[in-house]
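Let us practice reading a record.
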Amino acid sequence: MSFAVILAASAASAPVLHYLRTNSDGSEAEAVVVFAPAPGAVHVFKSRSRCTNAAYVTGELDPESGQALALVGGRLGRDLAQQPFAWLARDADGVLRARLGAPDAPPAFEVPVGPRWVQYDFDFSDLIAHPPAEVLRRESFAFDLPLILMGEAGPSFVNRGQFRLEYTGTADRAGEEVLSYRATGPALGDGAGTLLFGAFDGRLVEADLPLPNHAEYSDFRLRLVSREQGEDAWRRALAAHWEGCPEPESE
């Protein structure tokens, strides 16, 4: 089998997972669609409503561990391409740096993090694209939880500290067996939460946490709504955002 055929088969079977992020009361709903085209890559589309500015984030992951190596924030263009404006990566000195405007711009924000980290405002998309090996082994694990918040007083970039996930057993979610994890640690202060992963594939299916990951939220809930597969499904999700929308007014 040729390499091109293998790549085509991989793209056709790559998961496309549709989530809904809200407060715990269901308010501030935003769709989050995660596409994992390869073990070392993740693409994420986020939208509040059609025909409006929508986020399009891409990530380079370690294909073995799933650890994020670099993240690129941007917006979804009408041509369905990413319009990048922010670059985030952990440098060799252990400092996570965010650059704005260009990938070689001076750092706008920086914060030290450990070798294992998950950017919280990325909505656990790296864990979704590449489920942690510990989940399928039903083991506990931990990582640092950096967070960028765009508040009224301006942006802030902090490392919330360690986010610990303790395996607590299996449960049933709408007829699906899931693996339940209790979330604690300095990242959550005195609070605690729950993450549920699919027992079969280790994909995140639900998260309930007392810590918001955007300034306009009061807490955090993420629920898996539906699954598709293949690059065509991903392109349809992007295209649907702009379908039938009026053309932008020329300046």
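A brief commentary: The mean pLDDT is 93.
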